[in-house]
Amino acid sequence: MAIVVEAFLDLGRGDENPLSPSSYSAGYRLVETGEVICTVELSVPIVEAAILKRSKVSIIVTPGGCVEVSSGGSAAHEQIDDLVARAVTQANLHMEEATTSDLESLLHRLERSIGLVKEAIARAPVAL
Fold it and tell me: 19 in helix, strand or coil?
């Protein structure tokens, strides 16, 4: 019978605070029993920097107003106005400690975006 091992990477194994782990455990274990053969503790910043360095994150806005985010084969999407609506809720503004200046900056960027869309509409070919 062949002995089969697998690599693993576990977050916060043995950490005192499971809600804020300080390390990852990486190593090899037996598939049949789960017994760990060898392990090394790695700090969270080192592991996550290595993972993110190899990840390709793509964020696009479609012509229909949908914001699409994809990374590592998974994707999420949401309408741009839903994102803005969530950003300007009273609870979010309080949590983000948003200032009037922040909101004015957001308004300026949205108005600029509206201008860009209007320019694109003007350049669009006329439908028959």
Answer: coil
